Amino acid sequence: MSGIDLLVVGAGPAGLLAAIKAADEGLRVCIVESMAKPARKLGIAGKGRGNLTNTAPLPEFLKHFNRQGRFLKAAFAAFFSQDLVDFFEREGLKTVEERGGRVFVASGRATDAVRCLHHAVERRGIRLLTSSPVRDLLVIDKSCQGVTLIDGRKLTAARTLLATGGMSYPLTGSTGDGIRMAKNCGHTIVTPLPSLVALKPEKPLPDSLQGAVIKNLSAELRINGKKEAAEFGEMAFLDGYLAGPIMISLSRAAVQALHAEQQVEIILDLKPALDHAKLDRRLLREIESNRGIDIAGLVAKLLPAELRRYCLDQTGLNGSRRADQMSAEQRKALRLWFKQQQYTIVGHAAWEQAIVTAGGIATNEVNPNTLASKIVANLHFAGEIIDIDADTGGYNLQAAFSTGWLAGQAIATAIKAGNKNRSEDRIQP
Length: 429
Prior knowledge:
CATH architecture of the largest domain: 3-Layer(bba) Sandwich
Structural class: alpha+beta
CATH topology of the largest domain: FAD/NAD(P)-binding domain
CATH class of the largest domain: Alpha Beta
CATH superfamily of the largest domain: FAD/NAD(P)-binding domain
Radius of gyration: 26 Å
Mean pLDDT: 93
Number of helices: 12
Number of strands: 19
Distance between the termini: 34 Å
Strand order of the largest sheet: 12-17-16-13-14-15
């Protein structure tokens, strides 16, 4: 294959938008994708509903990223959340904003966003080679000339964009191959770790908790005994893990600490609206208002059914005993269980369950204004392959779309400038 201006490795959100932008700028573009279909991970985003972005203003938006978030300022300045909504609108996909500024595909089907991008690629005549895994980058004298496919074929291009994603959800194609390729050509890799993932407590959870969901609670993350972060919202007990939205958010720092061999604890407060004194008065009022109620009945007034037996087992209380016969110490034990459930965290779920990858290509080796490699000429990066990760809520996908768009624009600008210079050279007397 010859005459290609831009070769995009990876047909995810970053790669597809880069290809679309470059094609709109007049470039001849080819995409190579290891999977049989493009953007499989996008098709399951937002629990299958397609949480594409978030309407939070830029300063707040950046706070949801790791310490490398400032790297994205140029990408977000070039293409941000409203630009993305407008792009999809032009391409025929409607979106809707929901609680917390989250922007979803209006149909509630993330696969509609995948189809929209696929059609956009087809309309622009962009060549898409699926089921075409790349073995490695074709680098000669510190300049990327294209790629070598797993079957030995070589595809050459003026510029190459590596947008293969990280290592999360490997069944969707994010196997870490792009990170390996970048390392092979000299890039520093920040150790990839699963992020936005369920956390494993030291003590096994009882089967009775499986699937239990708790709403309106707060969770505090402590690292080496010090408060690191806190979240309010909903959590769940799944397959022996602490899961659900607030656990997923806290996992970013928790996983980093675990791999640094630090002590990690989660403290749950099931009644965050009540301090200890108010909760004690609440317990006394319930006992007073329900004469003769047993402890199991009292607990039933305060907890969903799935948690009641767990509460009695954890506190050592006899559920058949009358609540008004509880001692002050027993009432304190119940109160502490509600306010300070403590879990020592010893692990996390596997890559297959991680929503995003923390780590990747070090940002100080990538030009934030062009997404070009500072190590290898004619090579660019976009999306999750770079060491940028964020909370859930549409932030990670926006970063992928924005870096893809900026890379496509920058590559088009560079190639046009090169063509112009060569043209001027030819007409010199």
